[in-house]
Amino acid sequence: MLNRNRTNPRPPLAPLNQKDKMNIRRLRPCHALLTLALAAGAHAQTVTVNTVEDYVDFPAPQQVAQLPGPDGFVSLAEAIIAANNTPGPQTIAFAIPRDQWWLLDNVALLQQENLFLLTDDGTTIDFSTQTDFTGDTNPDGNEVAIWGTHPGNLGIPSIWVMADHCVIKGLGNVYQRGNAVRLQGNFNRVIGCVTDGGLYSAVEITGGFGGPSPHGNIIGGTEPGEGNVLTAGGSGISSGGPADHNVVIGNVLKGPSSGIVVAGVPQSNLIAADNRIGGPTPAERNLIAGSGLYGEEGFPSGTQVHIEDADGTIVEGNYIGTNADGSAPDPHQRGPGGVVVVAARGTVIRNNLISGLWVPGINHYAGETFGTAIGLVGGAVDTVIQGNLIGTDASGASRVPTFSGILANFFPGRGSPGATLIGGVGPGEANTIAYTDTVGVSLFYQSASITISGNSIHDNGLQGIDLQSFEGGGITPNDPGDGDTGANELQNFPELVLAQASQTGATVVGSLNSHAGREYSIEFFASPSCDPSGYGQGSRFLGSVDVSTDVQGNTSFEAHLASGVEPGEAITATATDLSTGDTSEFSACILAEKACAADFNGDGAANTLDVLAFLNAWAATDASADFDGNGVIDSRDVLAFLNAWTAGC
């Protein structure tokens, strides 16, 4: 008979002490935490599992010293009970003879009737030791899998970790359980697992209803063999509130619903906060692709990364929607969503490759295409989107099929996205949004306070930026006084009248009509050619000027930009209301003209001030005084300049 008695659950965690807080602060350079978690098992006792059956028959006090029981075998349930009851760290290893394997001929398939509940800190369950015993019998995965034998346990985890500093290593598939691993303690690790099996998620991190918030757990790692391949019937990983300061790095993640879900339930005070997916180094990159499925009518559904009702989530440095080298879509891509943020706060999405979100519909949706690289839905406030490649390959130079770039979508009853920054003018802040079938950045009609700055937005099938009104999208004409309403309040764009390319940079002249008495930032962009619509995209950021409107809402500008522009390039601009953060669509484009050679100081006229400016530069042997372009500053440059000045403009 199986002993179905459960060990008493671990008491609730105490509030964070100073040591815990210091460990959490180390999460970003997470190597210290990795070392800390592994060190717990440095001098551990080893208990070896040698049967696939789930019997428990060893005597009290059921510690390591009492193993094995009368049957002579050690089951995983017995090993876990012994580890829980024995002071100090333990390692649970596996050496199951081939003659005990059943149902599958390439893995040791453990039968599970009991709950595998870890309550002892510092326990390591190392399934990879089975490979050392029998060899690599499963080249496509690991050598130990788990079969839940009780049909009533489909919603219960297989391995439930309610302790701290534990390691689950090298687990294979898990069948007929809710999750392969649930982490409800702190500073635990899951490494080297290749896990599938129709689960809600392969790994779940949660404090449950009313439980303390698990923190400091690390799924994956940066060293060889530490990354996991986690797939499931739902999501590869789910991190549900409460859960905070957990890290997911170096993994391959996918599932019919999502690759990874981070979600809280604020109304129940179950907060998912400050969790990180990926990191700043290539070794921390997750490959999150291939998630999703077709619904009954042929409509594709599913996302790669889903963040909902969570605070401070960081999604950084991942490949999302592509193959492993970032050169093409994942061949199994079905989910049309890349990163979807729903009613979350303070999300940071930076330095990811998000492409390959191009999914054809089938059945009733045949002939339609779906896909959005980044979606902000209902109340996704204070989102920062920077440094991402969207619609391109990993080099940023070639197309990877992607239906649309960034979409902010009002969700009835949930509020609208706000205080969001897409891009920036600092080093590495600009996104590249290119080669999509439709719009680069599309804001639905009640989206607001979304600043779009400094990005490279080019070669998209429709507009670079589309601010939609209640009537729909498309190019929105300016209106006097900017009183119309829609996405970003349908902020008026600048009107450009002149662009000149010169040796010293570019001069752009234009005007803006908008709200009276406000300050605006006008940003300028260059592209090799004008968009077919006549309203630009912006391949290369040139610079910006700040302006203020008068009591009629008018202002004009003459911007002298240090960035070089070639004659014939298309120049466009956007306007951002500095009081609200609302950014306009791109302006109509104009072609840069070659500046008058004699206008040395770039003020638009050739006069004696230009002679003085040239002579000062020539006397200082400034490079700009090499007027004839022969690489030498001498009297021939003076002659060339005077000839041009005499000819005038």
Notes on the structure:
The strands form 9 sheets. The protein has a 13-stranded parallel beta sheet, sandwiched between helices. Strands 4-7-10-13-16-20-26-30-35-38-41-44 form a 12-stranded parallel beta sheet. It has 4 domains: 31-44 and 87-288, no CATH class; 290-462, no CATH class; 492-594, Immunoglobulin-like (Sandwich); 608-647, no CATH class. Strand 1 (45-49), helix 3 (76-85) and strand 2 form a beta-alpha-beta unit. It is mainly β and 649 residues long. It contains 6 helices and 52 strands.
Please name the defining characteristics of this protein.
649 residues, mainly beta, 4 domains, 13-stranded parallel β-sheet, 6 helices, disordered N terminus
Can you give me a brief rundown of this structure?
With 649 residues, the chain is mainly beta. The protein has six helices and 52 strands.
Tell me the layout of helices and strands.
Elements: H1 18-25, H2 31-39, E1 45-49, H3 76-85, E2 90-94, E3 108-112, E4 116-118, E5 124-126, H4 129-134, E6 144-148, E7 159-161, E8 167-169, E9 174-175, E10 179-183, E11 189-191, E12 194-195, E13 201-206, E14 218-220, E15 229-231, E16 235-240, E17 243-244, E18 247-249, E19 252-254, E20 258-263, E21 272-273, E22 276-278, E23 287-288, E24 293-294, E25 300-301, E26 303-308, E27 310-311, E28 314-316, E29 319-320, E30 337-342, E31 348-350, E32 353-354, E33 359-360, E34 369-370, E35 372-377, E36 384-386, E37 389-390, E38 406-409, E39 420-423, E40 432-434, E41 441-443, E42 450-453, E43 456-458, E44 465-467, E45 495-502, E46 505-513, E47 519-527, E48 540-548, E49 554-561, E50 570-577, E51 590-591, E52 593-594, H5 608-619, H6 635-647
Parallel strand pairs: 1-2, 2-5, 3-6, 4-7, 5-8, 6-9, 7-10, 8-11, 10-13, 11-14, 12-15, 13-16, 14-18, 15-19, 16-20, 17-21, 18-22, 19-23, 20-26, 21-27, 22-28, 23-29, 26-30, 28-31, 29-32, 30-35, 31-36, 32-37, 35-38, 36-39, 37-40, 38-41, 39-42, 40-43, 41-44, 45-52
Antiparallel strand pairs: 24-25, 33-34, 45-46, 46-49, 47-48, 47-50, 50-51
Helix pairs in contact: 5-6
